[in-house]
Write a structure and sequence with these properties.
The chain is α/β, with parallel strands linked by helices. About 30% of the residues lie in helices and about 30% in strands. It contains six helices and eleven strands. A hairpin with a 4-residue loop joins β10 and β11. The chain starts with a strand and ends with a strand.
């Protein structure tokens, strides 16, 4: 039996899943750019958005930071998200950013299918992550991810534009947003351009934790 297609993202209280892009430099992760004001602004906002996950025991385990870390609702949700995922799909822009910032043992530990216009040989990393580059569209990438995942679920890892393409195509079964208590004012909105006439949501659960609120919805065709 095929698993479900879902996404799980952090979102600011005003609806953004990423800060406003940096336009002053090409590579925000290059050491020589770390003092650029726009890079510092982007990094600061991103850290605020994701601040709920960094202290978790699961986060420390997954990135091999050593023992310790917080347990509780947020840790359970992060662990459940990882354990249900048999394969992931992401857009090329997210991959390009991650290639420069992920550790050598990328934190997915499953096959990852990158939706792109630029082909490339598979990129295998230690720890079970292999990136595959799919040039024939979002449905082809999802088909390959479903096959790789078996009876586990497929996670749409991001970014926001790629997630929205899957939502508008009616290919998402469920999602969770971790609403962080921060305001961006500008950036990448999760549902900017959504075809609301085709999407109906069913609340599944709402779980507050010490730093965020996790909202889960089933997605149906309207």
């Amino acid at each position: 039996m095929a698993g479900r297609v879902f996404f799980s993202v952090s979102m600011s209280l005003d609806g953004y899943v990423a800060p406003e892009p940096v336009t002053t430099v090409d590579d925000i992760f290059a050491p020589e750019n770390r003092d650029d004001p726009e890079v510092r602004r982007w990094m600061g906002q991103w850290m605020e958005l994701q601040q709920w996950i960094f202290p978790l025991r699961f986060f420390r385990e997954n990135l091999k930071f050593g023992p310790g870390g917080e347990e509780g609702v947020a840790d359970d949700i992060a662990r459940e998200t990882f354990e249900r995922t048999g394969a992931s799909v992401m857009g090329r822009r997210m991959f390009d950013l991650g290639e420069r910032s992920w550790p050598e043992e990328a934190p997915f530990h499953t096959p990852v299918f990158v939706v792109t216009h630029r082909g490339r040989d598979p990129w295998e990393r230690p720890g079970g992550t292999t990136f595959h580059f799919v040039t024939d569209g979002i449905e082809a990438a999802l088909d390959r991810a479903r096959e790789a995942a078996g009876d586990r679920d497929v996670r749409l890892a991001g970014g926001g534009t790629t997630i929205l393409r899957y939502v508008n195509a009616g290919l998402v079964d469920e999602f969770t947003v971790a609403v962080s208590p921060v305001l961006f004012g500008a950036g990448t909105r999760l549902f900017e351009g959504v075809d609301a006439s085709r999407v109906a949501l069913e609340p599944i659960r709402s779980e507050p934790s010490s730093r965020t609120t996790h909202l889960t919805y089933a997605v149906h065709r309207r």
